[in-house]
Specification:
Length: about 240
């Protein structure tokens, strides 16, 4: 049975009206996408198209990385709707850039993940970055250290701490993404973390944490892990 088009739904059930009445937090991902799409094909429901996009790509992160050509292979998505979706994700990235300019406090893994999530959402390969912070744990700037293949990056302590010394940073937070979506640290992640902790101790520059970004799932409610929380600072 074909779903009702949005304009045929009762006003209280339409995504736009629900957002106005209850705020964006009351809407599902599919409903928010439906607002961007405005309408679907004749006789189709934009929410159904939104659900199909989420189902097809599995997560907003994967959807954000889809090219305009890939998006247009989905029934109901033409050039205009594909561009609208791409623009929405680009705006999210630019908002994240503005947040970094405000020197946010980075005293928890959640704060780090919130700051860097949108910047990493579009990345298709592993990218290793460091957050340089001052003595009050406020961001000085973000530095990209290395970019690898789909699941491999190469890190040398010299490259990490060169930037920290030049910026006169008191400490650094390590961060990288797992394009696979699973933020579980690999043995290589653990080794490079411990190597950098020890190098920082020699240079009197604290390594506060190493946060790995992935994707949330029904089984995994957080889209990141903190190696400090996992206990990998013990014994270093």
């Amino acid at each position: 049975m074909t779903s009702l088009r949005i304009k045929d739904q009762p006003a209280g059930e339409r995504p736009r009206e629900r957002l106005a009445a209850h705020g964006p937090g009351a809407l599902s991902q599919a409903e928010l996408i439906a607002i961007l799409l405005r309408t679907g094909l004749k006789g189709a429901n934009a929410v159904d198209i939104g659900r199909h996009l989420i189902s097809k790509y599995g997560s907003l992160s994967s959807l954000a990385r889809a090219s305009l050509e890939e998006l247009q292979t989905v029934k109901g998505i033409g050039p205009d709707k594909a561009v609208t979706l791409a623009a929405a994700f680009a705006l999210a990235c630019k908002m994240a850039e503005e947040l970094r300019d405000d020197a946010p406090l980075l005293d928890t893994p959640e704060a780090v993940a919130n700051l860097m999530r949108e910047d990493n959402r579009l990345r298709k390969v592993e990218t290793f970055q460091i957050l340089l912070v001052n003595t009050r744990r406020r961001l000085v700037r973000v530095e990209q250290i290395s970019q690898g293949t789909l699941d491999t990056i190469l890190i040398h302590p010299r490259d990490v701490f060169k930037s920290a010394i030049a910026a006169n940073a008191a400490a650094v937070v390590l961060i990288h993404n797992h394009p696979s979506g699973d933020p579980t640290p690999s043995e290589a992640d653990i080794k490079v973390t411990r190597d950098l902790i020890r190098a920082g101790q020699l240079l009197k520059i604290d390594v506060l944490d190493h946060v790995i970004l992935g994707c949330a799932t029904q089984e995994r409610t957080r889209d990141y892990v903190s190696l400090r929380e996992l206990g990998y600072w013990a014994g270093c």
